[in-house]
Amino acid sequence: MKLWRLNPSDTQLEDTQIFQDICDALSDGKLVAIPTETVYGLAADATNGKACAGIYEAKGRPSFNPLISHVDSLEAAQTHAFFDDRALKLAEAFWPGPLTLVLPKLPTSPVSDLAVAGLETIALRVPRSAVMRALCKRTGLPLAAPSANLSGRISGTTAEDVINDLKDHLSYIIDSGATPVGVESTIVSLVGDRPTLLRPGGLAREDVEAVLGEKLVRAGTDDSAPMAPGMLTSHYAPNSHIRLNAEDVAADEALITFGSTLPDGSDKAAKLVPLSDSEDLTEAAARLFTALRQADLGENGKIAVMPIPHHGLGEAINDRLARAAAPRD
């Protein structure tokens, strides 16, 4: 594995030899960990079934769980999916950014059946990350890039997180520091008559609804044939067991805090890990996965989490926490 330390403000990406080397690696079907504005992605050529199989193998991910394909522009996305007026509105309003659209896949799209898990739909995103877009543009490839972590575990928001989980599977990792959004993209399906929120994420539901002019239907969990990533009941889980909406804390529990007023017993908690002392939901979302890793006390450990409001990005935070706390096989 080779590491490229990249300044997020660097605009001369294409002029470096390592950038071209990474393009060559992706074109050859190898795996590269790439930072986006949401989390780090485990990227591979979405048109190469063998490369996508490498993603599933590295993550230990169920092959019925579809992958998001990243492209550099709306124009590129339109070569893979049918965009109705609703899809065009959302793409023009929020791309590049933390929004994934699930749309009818065009029969001419070269994205592999494995990447879409055999479905007739495709999940597409134009990320804000300049390096991801630059790699898509230079290679001419859609890049399948689920979160760079072991399946079901905590998503990686730093290069160190990714290295700890996946270093033996990577040809390169691009390190540009901690990701600014910190939770995965919001996923909206526009396949049926009603727009459906498949996964809350880094773009608030309210912002999507304001552009569409209608409410989103909320999809439930799906453990057999999910339409998009992040729909499995148990996901984003640390080794420790999690208790939500904690109003007290035991001495053997780590406590993830929100706000400066702490619950009873916090002075005796095994560990205190703050999400946001100022109750800022944007800050809390950016810190969520790091906080879960820091609070993890091991297989027999326990984590208590203070209540988090459900509005704005709080919906995504609570979704991730609920899946992290769900019973596991």
UniProtKB/TrEMBL annotation:
Segments forming domain YrdC-like: 16-203
Subcellular location: Cytoplasm
Domain of life: Bacteria
Binding site for L-threonine: T38, H70, R125, A145, S185
A GO molecular function held by the record: L-threonylcarbamoyladenylate synthase
SUPFAM superfamilies xref list: YrdC/RibB (SSF55821)
EC number: 2.7.7.87
Catalytic reaction list: L-threonine + hydrogencarbonate + ATP = L-threonylcarbamoyladenylate + diphosphate + H2O
NCBIfam families: L-threonylcarbamoyladenylate synthase
UniProt function note: Required for the formation of a threonylcarbamoyl group on adenosine at position 37 (t(6)A37) in tRNAs that read codons beginning with adenine.
Protein name, UniProt field: Threonylcarbamoyl-AMP synthase
Lineage of the organism: Bacteria, Pseudomonadati, Pseudomonadota, Alphaproteobacteria, Hyphomicrobiales
